[in-house]
Write a structure and sequence with these properties.
CATH superfamily of chain A: P-loop containing nucleotide triphosphate hydrolases
Number of strands of chain A: 10
Helix content of chain B: 40-55%
Radius of gyration of chain B: 29 Å
Shape of chain B: elongated
CATH topology of chain A: Rossmann fold
Oligomer: heterodimer
Number of helices of chain B: 14
Distance between the termini of chain A: 21 Å
Structural class of chain A: alpha/beta
Largest sheet of chain B: 10 strands, mixed
Structural class of chain B: alpha+beta
Largest interface: A-B, 27 and 24 residues
Amino acid sequence: MIEAVGLRKTYDHGRVEVLRDVHLTVEPGEFVAISGASGSGKSTLLHLLAALDRPTAGTVRVNGHDLSGRVHDVNGYRRRIGLVFQLHNLLPHLAAARNVELAMFGTHHSPSERAQRAVALLDDLQLGYAVHRSPARLSGGERQRVAIARALANEPKVLLADEPTGSLDAGSIEVVFELFDSLRAKGLTIVMVTHDSAVAARADRQLTLNQGTLART
Amino acid sequence: MTFVGLMFRNLRVKPLRSALTAIAVAVGVASGVTLGIVTHSLRETAVQILQIGKADFSVTQKGVTDVLNSVMDEGDLVALGNDPDVESTVGVLVSIEDLGDDNPMFLEIGIQPERMEEFGVRLVQGEVYGATAPDEVMLGYRASRNLGKTVGDTLQLGEFTYRVVGIFATDQEFGDSAAMLPLVTLQATERKPGDVTIAFVRVRPGADVDALRQRIERDFPQMITVRTASEFGRADRNLQLLSAADDGATILALTIGVIIVANTMLITFLERTREFGVLRAVGWSRRRVMSLVIGETLILSLVGASLGIGISYLAIQVLEHVGNLAGVLHPEYTVEVFRRALLTATGIGFLGALYPALRAALLVPLEALRRE
């Protein structure tokens, strides 16, 4: 469960206020889409939920982890949260499967288990043919799917996705949502930032960030 | 993919840079190892002079730059021999003769014939020279073989011609490669009447050797005693200087190696900032990121160490045939050599990687991800 109360985030010594008084509750298994103009604070909100940043004020809890201050076992928390970056952030010198495996270092999986799971995830995202390809030899959509596979590598309970379908074609979007649906059936909670109203419409709930404040669409 | 496998993959991204970093380590290792081997070899060679005589310890003049420049009065040795704990003393005069490129440092040992047995010399062919014979010489069996001289042949040493009257063995390479002459004869040709270079002292059974040495150094302040190879520097300041130069050069090579590796790894770190940010964002701990950077550097260091040993081996092969070192350098590739190479490489790698690794580990993921 995700619970944010009175979240505020400022930069530049308080001169730039990106989030102000954000309240958000996401139930387990729920799929929430967040839209908003560029610079409205969508990515910042995801970063706070992913423990990549700390709020200036307010509290945020994800599955019992208090992320408002110093996070206990922050590395373990990050491993248990699936995070899809807007810009893929794949390591260019590693093949697709190796990029997925990276997220599993530090878990109990052996190297061979990591490799098997990476291939299985890429297969689920219909990228079985690209397992050994480097990111440079993948299209934008393929790279995004590899990034999604990496986010799902540790069977997270919460997936935070920043424009995960931004560079996908319609067919690929369907593949991704089929996987999301099957994982949601197992209890996966999804918070997705998107510009695409059609994609947002597939969520259980649509929210809009406007001038740092979250409101139901 | 294992963690080490990931390190190798990362190193292959910039093969030229990885190779150059390994070469930087190799140069540091080669410098340290070569100087270490040369110093060790020279020390061993020099120490052998003191070990020719079968003695409990040796006595030489204090404060000389080269033990072969030591000059002691035979009269002092007689006084030294009067100590109740001294069983016997054998004084020898040692001189170096240049016999050409193959024997640039041929050793001449002046010793009284009746002290030879005490000195550990065995006659293997011919006879012992006369106590005052001006033109008789004995050759160690190695010297005999190296010079192609045997009993009955003549041997030119400097401006003097000698007749080889016997071949001896000392069971010690340095002694067996030398010539022995009557002490008075060598003292005359060297214009050092009544002088000896080294004295070999045997101690009475049950006597306290260390106490005797302290007594000798107190009663004869111009003398110094040497019992083990590691003490040789007490008697030979050249070797002290050589050891200091070895240490200094090794530290310098290590420092330069560390700076080069640190610089390279820092550039690598700056290029890989975003990568480290991704790793931290997907749950890598600071320790794991540090281990990755240090591990990659240590791999390069180990490659550098292997390369460095190879370079060192080649360098020593060359040095063995160069000028003053010809015939003196007898390098030994001991476990210590490899330990030194490994330590040097590991030191360079670890110290060079430490700062970049710390910076990588301390990156704030979000800031790292924002870097281009």
